[in-house]
Amino acid sequence: MIRRFFYPRRTRRDIQTDVDEELRFHLDSRQQDLVARGETSSDARLQAMREFGDIDDARGYLRNIDNEIESLRRRKDYMDELRQDLGFAFRSLRSTPGFTLVALLSLALGIGANTAIFSVVHSVLQRPLPFPNPEQLVQVWSSTTAGDRSHVSASALDVDDWRAQKKRFTDIGGYWFAEGASGADLTGRGEAQRVSVAAVTPGFFPTLGVAPMIGRLPAESEMVRGGDDKVVLLSHAYWTRAFGGDRAIVGQSLILGGEAYRVLGVLPAHFTYPSANVEIYLPFSTIPDGSIPRIRPVRVLNVVARMAPGVTIEQAATEMTLITRGLAERYPDSNASYANAELQSLAEVITGPVRAPLLGLLAAVAFVLAMACMNIASLLLARAAARKREVAVRVSLGATRSRIIRQLVTESLALATVGGMLGLAVAHICTKVLVATSADRLPRSQEIHTDGVVLAYAFGASLLAGLLFGVVPAIRASAVNLADTIRAGSNSVVGDGQRLRSVLVVTQIAFAVVLAVGATLSTRSFAKLLQVDPGFKPERLVAVALTMSTARHGNDGAYLNYYQQLIERVRATPGVVSAAAAQYAPFRGMGERNGFLLPGQSLANGEEMPNAPAQRISDDWFRTIGTRLVEGREFAATDRKGSPLVVVVNKAFAKQYFKEQSAIGQSLKLGGSVDATIVGVVADIRQSAIADEPTPLMYISNYQNLRVRVTLVARTQGEPLLLARTLQNAIREIDRDQTITEVFTFDEILNEAVARPKFLTVLFGTFGTLGLLLGAVGIYGVLSFIVSQRRREIGLRIALGANAGAVQRLVMQRGLLLAIAGVAVGISSALMLSRYIEGMLYGIASTDAMTYVSVAAGLILIATLASLIPAWRASRVDPLVALQPE
Amino acid sequence: MSREPMDLLQGTLDVLILRALAWGTMHGYAVSRWIHERTDGTIAIEDAPLYKALHRLEKAECVLAEWGLSENNRRARYYRLTPLGRKQLRVEEANWRRYAAAVFRVLEPA
Fold first, then answer.
1. What separation in angstroms does the CA of A205 have from each of A162, A218, A281, B22, B23?
2. Please, what is the average pLDDT of chain B?
């Protein structure tokens, strides 16, 4: 068994020299032998060289082989040392189970949380959209030349023209989808159902480049008026849910709105554009003019386009604007004001709004991991002090300092790697939870999954963590003064690692401050959001949304009859206090925009009428949902067909258009020609999003201007959802085939409106709390360590007469000093970073003084509390025990 | 036996070197003289391939090399057989004998 304990490392130069010497020895020996046989010196030399053969070739060959041998030896030694180090590491970690468990737990949580959030960031922000060549996809909007309105939808005729005139685009397509509003009644398969529909133009599927999983896409002829356009495609989720994944449905027909539509195919599972809630895609051409008139002023389509290869977005925007300007000239009445086009990359549109919060989360969770690492480093420093003997022995046995450092770092890396693997399990759970709770609030949430990049990130994070907490303690631990250590009674090395740990704690506190500031700002912003007056009283309000079927109720008279019946039936239901109806509940929709002229207003050339969203509502709507009537009156039984047309406006409307005057009695010309009198002004209702400022809104009586979309709302005496079934049954008693779009309570929609900020607040709050905990643990650790290190000094002080209080004060002063330093650094860092979260806050500035002051005070309090136990322990030091020789 | 020295058959150099070293630890020159003497000059062995083979055997861990002092107090590189090398020698030797016996059987007059 060949054992080489120490052999000198051979450099290339050493090998070169050795080879030369070996060859020289051979030639000299041969020369000598030949001379002994009687040859002359020079002849002998020549013969020796001749006998040898190609010496230069041999020289080169030997050098190469020897270099290879050396490399192999080095690698083998490295592997041996690594195995040794790992063995050491595991034994050592096993012998201190407390430390190992704490470290593994912190690492698993820290790395797990980081990996989970990274996988969200990666899936949502970094991965390209699941379409072929997604960088070519853009969203196209109209915008006004005045620049006051942007992101305006397009009309179907405009989209057709854009498609016909495009040069730098491969294709352009439009879609109409409104959550809860674009639907169709599906009958003939059990109970009548409302299915959610996206109506698309011919260019939609070619633009996105999606291929159906089963079946085929519609041909161009199957998507235009007059063609065989009664075709549908099913979304994958709907196909699985409603038809159990049965392939036989392709080729069969579905009865939608009373007409038969052929099922052409099923789309793949990953296709969830424009929304994961779309159940059926059908051609826009099948929407009757009665629902959406095909005229240029009616703008409902969102447009997506694919740029030709090599075209930049600026070039595409230029061409698009040229086209829209051309249309503006040709059709001035409808298009003159909307002469511009805006383009934005589709990825940006979908993921832009969540970029800042997600990156903020990633930063926060990285902070938490850094803090956990600092805690572990602190623990390792303490451990290093305890292992001084062990290290000294190894040094005396001949280990070099770099070897010891390498072994200690390997230990840290091993710890980090195991922690990282546990972290993957944690990440798996965290990701599942995140996806489940954020389904509606995060775009592309169905695409979140772990892939190679995420695993690499987890691995990299583990390595980095291991190095972060391992290197400095390792260097410290290896700096051992042999004589001092092995000699007995060597515990009096003051300041051993103490300064370093103090720096660590100050850094930790700074981090904790930043996290706490973020969490506090986020929480207070959320609280302010909750305080916003939505404009109505949400308690015990239940709503049933439906669309009156065009097929069954035919003319206006029949509709109004039905409408009246529905409302009266709900009012008559036991348990209902009051009931009314509107088109959309708050946060569910705004209603279409209607233009109007103010009293005495006439339009200049090319100027557009002012317009505002106008909802069609029933009598008693505001009283039912609890909105304050500011002036005038609501709609009543006197406002019916044939009576003068009346409108109610909100405060924002009155303020914008009538300023200080009363709006009551003022007359508007709706659509530019129809006279309507304002009879009431109501408080502002948050109709779109809770954080948005109220905009001018109009209300028109549904009896005077009918719309088929209806949301019946009832205020109940008891629990609102208990009445939901009763109400649905009551409705079905009037019309058996009435499909219900949705049933919900106003409490639910109010919760939904704050869902995303709530989600973010919870996450930031969690990280902030974790940060505070870690900071407290850090302070406690350092102070305990200081106390144990300075035992003798403290014992001395007590023996010399210092009372318990003085000793305690000593320790607490130390703790306070560290805390103040940390808070100072933390507050200034937080102030510098504050501008990055400005956009996420509502109602509070990112530099809000009270927040910073309370966080500072809070941390100082926590530091004080964390110092209590070490301080108490210091005062209990028994001088007799402490002053004994080791 | 004075004919032209024959060319070395493929792969035989390794087994010759191992056999030489089984005799005792030698430096490269000594191995060269040992083989030359034992084959009576029948086989022509250039020293360059010999040294190449020696170092190859070192890489294969069949021989171990150490620096030492020669008979006349010069620094020389000595080669020693390892247990693996000893095993390899036995294997090669057996192969050679089988090979030679087979050739003899073919050449033997019927």
1. 16, 9, 10, 81, 85
2. 86
